[in-house]
Design goal:
The chain has 1518 residues and is an alpha+beta fold. The chain is built from 50 helices and 19 strands. An eight-stranded mixed sheet has the order 13-14-15-12-16-17-18-19. It has a five-stranded antiparallel sheet with strand order 10-9-8-7-11. α35 runs antiparallel to α36 and α42 runs antiparallel to α49. The longest helix is centred in the last third of the chain and has 31 residues. It is elongated and about 190 Å long.
Length: 1518
């Protein structure tokens, strides 16, 4: 069953005010208006005095038996004649003048007691005849009660007791309440009411309501006081009758006709809404089942529906009650509302004969109209399943205030002063609905033509005086009932099983469309819209003109309101704008509830577009009207739903957004609209339009509505400059953090999309005047370069000026800047890039220099993010560091981050050296980020990616690989890591860098030079170096280093002249120079010999010399005798090939020094003992710790309607089951890598950071796959930059890895090292290894001190806390990012996340292999629209402060060309924000350093300095 059932009901109900589905039935209206003879008493034939005396005497006696003053006694009346005679008297008594209050009261008491005859147990005082035939007498008594409510003779109006005091009226009201309460109780408890009695009761209630409510409202008369009470009793008793004795068609027809007479009463609308919502709540239960969101209404309203009311009865009653007011749009037509007998009677009898619609009480019509439309909008929301706060009081009070301000609300409504009903009986203050299964509605083809509007009204723009806009009647909460919250993650979801839009429009569409056209410039004649001509627009026509098809009224009637002056100021058409806004908001909600693939009838779309075009009309003072605000608030999804032809509205929406978004002080007509929400909804619209100009380019946008454009046909491409200006101007004035983040995401999308589009085909700028001023060109251009410059400037400026105190906006701005840095733009402006880096540095300086109370986790997170952003800029634009000023700025900021202050604070100040400064970084996180930036500057800027690609920043060589290339390696395949490690010497320098020294050359170097091969493992990776000690540079050394022996010179025969010369040590003239004391300071040999001891030693030494001389001479002679030849030649020794190069290397690099004997060397160099168990394993763990962050994104393809994990995972096996655009998207995420040959992150720990040989099965990639090749078995998609890696995996089955976890947790050492696998691990016991700032260490960048290795304290900043070894990472150490490509947008509500998560294991989950909680995942849902664009839906952990990562924004529409980059950046930013938010997160380089310190702890050799030197001088291991 669905709404189609009601659509089959006779739709002639809507054709006229009085006929409809009851047109062939007789009406009983004349009966209740003209009175019933049964209510006339025979005493009325006598003079009033005589009748009064009889009545007073008789009634007093009857009342005495009732038990009020004394115990109740049985009634003395025993026959029908006696009872009937008394009833004649009581009937007359009720019609006495009101000053006879006691008698009237006694009459009421008697009848109220007698009516208990219909109760299960009648009271004692009820006469026996009444008990025997209670229904007959009850009908008579009910009929007599009518006299209590009718006017007395001689009075024209019902109770205009202007000469009576308020006390009299109040006493009268009390008696009326007693009667109503008695009758209501009777209907509830009696089980013996016959159909005739029910009908008499209902007719009585209709009659008294008509008597009291049909006349124009007069303040404080009985009709005003009893209004809400008589209406509530009527509606509640009518509902009881529906359940127990369903009213006949004549009764329903009478009910409908009389209700239309009371439409000037606010209480009628409130009761109507209350009953409708109560019935709707029950209707939804059985139509859509228990899974449909429950419509929550107050308990007392839910109790309105009688227990046991059948489903069919509820449905019939709901439809009839809904239509009992006729067309709610007529409530804004005073001529229709006042066209009743009582209003005409008032006009005739009043002193000044005026038109009935001039009565002051009609000033409440705008509020009544608003409440009626709100009620319909509330029902629309209920059918859509939207949970919304719902308040009538706000609407009422704001309207009343508005009326009082405008001075036209001279007769306040009864809602403001009536003492009844009691508070608990008042209208529901709030209702909401909570999510179900829909059966298809069956729209009738014949209904299509029934939706034409019948109103003639004018535009608010052409209203009379401009001041009336300020007091524009009732202000609306801009669709309080149908407004959805438009925050990225707070908008209420629609019920999955909601009815189709056509079904809801068949039910409510005509009323809403007609209400939406109130006051617009377009009216309907027949079937087509007609634009009013110029003259008729300028001259206000009557807003009360009626459709010529109306039976009771027509345009030929006297036009008493044709002149503008005749319209009461409270009833000008602009006063109804709040109700019109409500109707437009409800329509927007209906059309925005369209499901994927759902068809909406073209006639509805056309009327909707026309209504929006009129509602988006901008008035002269550029004020945001209520209709404009309501449309924007409720149509955020309009351009992302594949609505046919919706693009025709694009120019109109852009006009509206230009009113709202660029204005800092927005002029809002309705005070109840929240500016932030309005701006957010507008931003959602803007984000769905940004890619349209480049997507459709030169496609023409059709004009509609009869208007002709002077600028010629408009194309999509022409809208791009307006959209870009709108985006940038909105960002300039935006003050709400969430809105600003959404705009930042849109800005990056725009630049990215433009840049990629220009790469494919250069875009020429339409209508751009090229002048000499380049600045104006950039501002007027919408090229990628111009957008890049504007975006960089604006975001940097606002980041420094106004966003720096907000964490999330700062992060979004830094994410945008990082995104801009990566975009390839042909004519990148070096000056702009330099300025951006300078601004980033200024931002870091400002944040670091804030006073201590401002330093918080959030502040430090922004500084860390800024350092990361600066790294992206420098890697992407390495030429920036060639600029001396830029290099200085960056290095100063790095110094500030590491040490907490700059060496030169201000220009001109003396420079402080490092050893003079105290190390006080803002926090350890900031210091770590600055260190990472410094390393990137020194190692990666200008060199990334390396010739080997971005997969690895390290050398892939390790001990095994190096040893295989050594000359000493004998060959063979078997070389274990243990064998290789034994050939190396291991030292740790600075407590953070492991040196593995191999003291032999590699096989490719034959030079006999001192050679050492070094493997350097530091916080930022592993690097292999070979170093040689050379005496000459290579290019001067020649091919050979040692010439062959030249031999001895040939001896010459001739002998020279021998001169006998006495040799002197000094020239002869030295003897002539007189000596001084200084000359004698060096004693002569002779003077030393004067000491006997010395002389003896000297003599002994002389003997030894003489003996040695004799021995050598003898040996020489002996040699000559033994050999025939000459004395052998002296030859140089052979070149040395064995060197202790480890000692040379350490010495030359300053790690060993002669003054180290003091023990100072121990703090810089530590030898490691490689023979201990576990050393190789820990070394391997260190090598498997990446120096970059690693993340994984799992991508799924979901076909329409799929709900199980097996179905979803099997889609990617074949390209025939996925969209070709999906495969294109996969290729744009990264590049394909073979997991066995890939040295980086692969998406699972078991295959990452190692190169292996695959088996033949594993190496085979599937052909014609739909993405399954990238499931991680042999290939994945991979992307990396200098500081992060990300793998994109397309799962095809639930992974086996989750069964066998990768980590052995059998020993503590394994656990500590195992933490190295976790990308986001917590601090271990060495987590804060002595963050010491002692004087002896201030020259180093590392603040660690080995003496603190064994202690687990708190560091100086208190940021990192050490604790016991944790055997599992924190729950969010492994951020899950899942991307879903959906064919049907609604499927994202029912993903089998728990099952799919089992296919997303990465090995980072910890030893238990536990699957993460599905509530802790980030979801990026991509829905392909028919236009080729994609709609984005983001979901994240509830309550997460960091879940708003950009550039993708919930609801954004993205082009295919920018999609891969946007998804990749968003996934990276989600993970980055998660890491920033994690207190215990350690960056990769810090975890590597901690691992090195752990190696020192476990494997250090406890050597003194002499022992260390001995170790170095000993032979290397072989």
């Amino acid at each position: 069953m669905n709404l189609g059932v009601f659509n089959r009901v006779n739709y002639n109900a809507k054709e006229s005010e009085s006929g409809g589905m009851y047109s062939e039935w007789a009406s009983l209206t004349s009966l209740i208006q003209n009175g019933n003879e049964e209510s006339q008493s025979v005493l009325g034939k006598f003079p009033m005095g005589s009748g009064k005396e009889v009545a007073m005497a008789v009634v007093k006696q009857l009342a005495a038996n009732l038990g009020f003053a004394q115990a109740a006694e049985p009634s003395p009346l025993t026959t029908d004649r006696e009872v009937q005679w008394c009833m004649e008297v009581i009937c007359f008594g009720m019609s006495l003048p009101l000053n006879e209050h006691d008698t009237i009261r006694d009459c009421v008491h008697v009848y109220c007691e007698w009516l208990s005859a219909l109760h299960p147990v009648p009271k004692v005082s009820v006469p026996r005849p009444v008990c025997e035939d209670p229904n007959l007498y009850a009908r008579k008594m009910i009929c007599h009660f009518h006299n209590l409510f009718v006017p007395r003779k001689g009075e024209v109006w019902s109770f205009p007791y202007l000469d009576l005091g308020a006390d009299t009226i109040n006493r009268q009201a009390v008696l009326c309440h007693r009667v109503l309460r008695t009758l209501q109780h009777l209907a509830q408890v009696s089980t013996s009411l016959t159909r005739e009695t029910w009908e008499a009761l209902l007719l009585f209630l209709l009659a008294i309501n008509d008597t009291l409510l049909a006349p124009p409202t007069i303040k404080d008369d009985v009709g005003d006081q009893l209004c809400e009470r008589v209406l509530s009793v009527l509606f509640e008793v009518w509902l009881l009758a529906c359940a127990r004795c369903f009213p006949s068609p004549p009764l329903w027809k009478t009910f409908r006709e009389t209700c239309m007479n009371w439409r000037h009463r606010i209480a009628l609308i409130e009761q109507w809404n209350r009953v409708n919502l109560a019935l709707t709540a029950r209707l939804l239960e059985f139509m859509y089942g228990p899974s449909f969101p429950e419509l929550k209404i107050p308990e007392e309203d839910a109790q309105l529906i009688p227990v046991g009311m059948s489903n069919d009865c509820i449905a019939q009653s709901w439809f009839r009650f809904l239509h009992c007011l006729g067309n709610p749009a007529n409530l804004c037509r005073p001529a229709v509302v006042s066209q009743t007998q009582k209003f005409l009677q008032f006009a005739i009898t009043s002193e000044n004969v005026i038109d009935p619609c001039q009565h002051p009480c009609l000033a409440a019509l705008p509020l009544i109209f608003l409440k009626a439309i709100k009620g319909i909008a509330g029902q629309v929301d209920a059918f859509l399943g939207i949970a919304q706060p719902y308040s009538w009081e706000e609407c009422s009070s704001s309207s009343d205030r508005d009326k009082k301000e405008s001075g036209v609300f001279s007769h306040p409504t009864s809602a403001t002063h009536s003492p009844t009903p009691p508070p608990q009986r008042r209208l529901a203050k709030s209702f909401s609905v909570a999510p179900s299964a829909v059966t298809k509605g069956i729209p009738k083809a014949s209904l299509i033509g029934l939706t034409s509007s019948r109103t003639t009204s004018v535009s608010a723009a052409s209203s009379g005086n401009p001041s009336s806009a300020l007091n524009s009647g009732p202000s609306s909460a801009s669709s309080l009932s149908s407004m959805v919250s438009l925050g990225g993650d707070s908008r209420p979801p629609l019920a999955p099983a909601r009815p189709k839009c056509n079904s809801i429009l068949h039910m409510f569409g005509e009323w809403l469309f007609e209400a939406a056209h109130i006051g617009s410039e377009v009216v309907y004649y027949g079937k087509g819209p007609v634009q009013r001509n110029e003259a008729s627009v300028n001259k206000r026509p009557s807003s009360l003109q009626l459709d010529s098809r109306k039976a009771s009224l027509s345009l030929s009637q006297p036009g008493s309101l044709t002149d503008e002056a005749d319209i009461p100021p409270a009833l000008t058409i602009d006063k109804y704008e709040a109700g019109r806004a409500e109707a437009l908001g409800a329509l927007c909600c209906i059309f925005c509830a369209k499901k994927t693939g759902e068809e909406i009838l073209p006639v509805y779309l056309a009327r909707f577009y026309l209504a929006l075009q009129q509602g988006l009309h901008i008035n002269e003072n550029r004020e945001c009207s209520e209709t404009l605000a309501s449309i924007l608030l409720n149509s955020a999804d309009l351009f992302r739903l594949d609505l046919d032809g919706v693009q025709v509205l694009l120019p109109h929406f852009i006009d509206a957004l230009e009113i709202v978004l660029p204005e800092k002080e927005l002029k809002l007509k309705s005070p109840s609209v929240l500016k932030t929400e309005l701006r957010r909804a507008s931003i959602h619209l803007l984000l769905s339009m940004l890619v349209l100009p480049l997507h459709f380019q030169n496609l023409t946008i059709k004009e509609f509505g009869g208007g002709s454009s002077e600028r010629g046909p408009l194309t999509f491409a022409q809208l791009k400059p307006r959209l870009m200006n709108l985006l940038i101007n909105a960002l300039q004035v935006e003050s709400d953090p969430q809105n600003a983040q959404m705009l930042l995401g849109g800005l990056l999308l725009s630049v990215q999309d433009s840049a990629i589009a220009e790469e494919v085909e250069p875009v020429t700028q339409p209508d751009t005047c090229l002048g000499s001023d380049s600045t104006s060109n950039i501002l007027s251009s919408d090229s990628a370069h111009a957008l890049f410059v504007r975006a960089t400037y604006l975001v940097c400026h606002r980041l420094i000026s106004s966003w720096k105190t907000d964490l999330n906006v700062s992060l979004a701005a830094l994410e945008l800047l990082a995104g801009l840095a990566r975009i390839h733009i042909r004519e990148t402006d070096a000056l702009e890039c330099k300025r951006a880096v300078k601004w980033l540095c200024d931002y870091i300086v400002y944040q670091c220099s804030r006073p201590p109370p401002a330093h918080s986790k959030d502040l430090h997170s922004t500084i860390v993010a800024a350092f990361q952003c600066a790294a992206v800029w420098l890697v992407a634009h390495p030429y920036l560091l060639e600029d001396k000023e830029c290099l200085t700025t960056v290095l100063e900021v790095v110094e500030l981050g590491i040490s907490g202050s700059k060496s030169q604070r201000k220009p001109g100040e003396p420079i402080r050296m490092k050893d003079e400064k105290e190390l006080k970084p803002a926090s350890m996180r900031v210091r770590d980020a600055a260190e990472a930036l410094l390393t990137i500057i020194l190692e990666q800027v200008g060199y990334f990616p390396s010739p080997c690609g971005a997969e690895s920043l390290w050398s892939l060589l390790d001990e095994v690989a190096l040893l295989r290339h050594c000359n000493s390696w004998p060959g063979g395949d078997h070389l274990s890591r243990e064998m290789a490690v034994d050939r190396f010497r291991y030292f740790v320098v600075e407590n953070s860098t492991v040196l593995a020294l191999l003291e032999e050359p590699l096989g490719n170097d034959q030079d006999p030079q001192p050679t050492v091969t070094v493997l350097i493992r530091g916080p930022f990776g592993r690097h292999a170096w070979t170093m040689q000690l050379r005496h000459l540079p290579r290019h001067k050394s020649g091919t050979k280093y040692h010439a062959p022996n030249p031999g001895r010179p040939v001896p010459m025969a001739d002998v020279g002249v021998s001169h006998d010369v006495k040799h002197r040590y000094f020239p002869e003239n030295v003897d002539r120079i007189p000596q001084c004391k200084v000359d004698r300071s060096i004693p002569s040999m002779e003077s030393l010999l004067m000491d006997p001891n010395v002389a003896a030693e000297h003599a002994h030494l002389s003997q030894l010399v003489e003996q040695q001389t004799a021995l050598e001479t003898a040996a020489g002679q002996q040699r000559c005798k033994e050999t025939d030849g000459p004395f052998p030649e002296c030859t140089p020794p052979p070149a040395c090939h064995e060197f202790q190069t480890a000692r040379l290397f350490l010495s030359h690099f300053g790690f060993l020094s002669l003054d180290a004997a003091s023990g100072n060397v121990g703090s810089r160099l530590t030898a490691l003992n490689t023979s201990l168990d576990g050393f190789c394993h820990d070394l391997e763990v260190l090598d498997n710790m990446s120096s970059r962050t690693c993340d994984t994104v799992h991508v799924f393809y979901v076909r329409a309607g799929q709900k199980t994990a097996e179905e979803i995972l099997s889609n990617v096996q074949s390209e025939s089951t996925v969209s070709p655009h999906f495969l294109e998207f996969l290729q744009s995420l990264g590049w394909s890598v073979n997991v066995f040959q890939h040295p980086g992150w692969t998406g699972h720990i078991s295959t990452s950071w190692k190169v292996t040989q695959p088996t033949s099965e594993q190496a085979r990639a599937p052909s014609n796959h739909g993405g399954s090749a990238y499931n991680g078995d042999s290939q994945v998609l991979y992307w990396a930059d200098a500081s992060s890696e990300i793998a994109f995996v397309v799962p095809t089955q639930c992974s086996e890895h989750d069964v066998s976890p990768q980590f052995d947790s059998s020993s503590e050492s394994t656990n500590v090292s195992g933490q190295g696998w976790f990308e986001r691990s917590i601090s271990e016991s060495t987590g804060n290894v002595g963050r010491s700032t002692e004087k002896t260490r201030t020259l180093s960048l590392d603040l660690d001190k080995p003496s603190a290795l064994s202690s687990a304290g708190t560091n100086g900043s208190g940021r990192r806390h050490a604790g016991a070894v944790r055997h599992s990472p924190p729950p969010h150490s492994n951020t899950k990012v899942l991307v879903f490509w959906t064919e049907s947008f609604e499927d994202q509500l029912q993903f089998p996340l728990a099952d799919l998560l089992r296919a997303t294991t990465t090995g980072l989950e910890g030893g238990s292999g536990r699957v993460p909680d599905e509530r802790d995942c980030f979801l990026i849902c991509l829905h392909a629209l028919a236009s080729g664009l994609l709609r984005v839906k983001l979901q994240g952990p509830a309550g997460g402060r960091t879940s708003l990562a950009t550039p993708l924004v919930d609801g954004m529409v993205v082009s295919r060309r920018a999609l891969g980059s946007m998804v990749r950046q968003t996934a990276l930013n989600m993970c980055r924000r998660r890491r920033l938010d994690n207190d215990s997160y350690q960056p990769p380089h810090l975890r590597r350093r901690i691992k090195v310190q752990e190696l020192v702890q476990k494997y250090r050799c406890q050597l003194s300095y002499p022992e260390l030197l001995t170790y170095l001088f000993s032979d290397p291991p072989t």
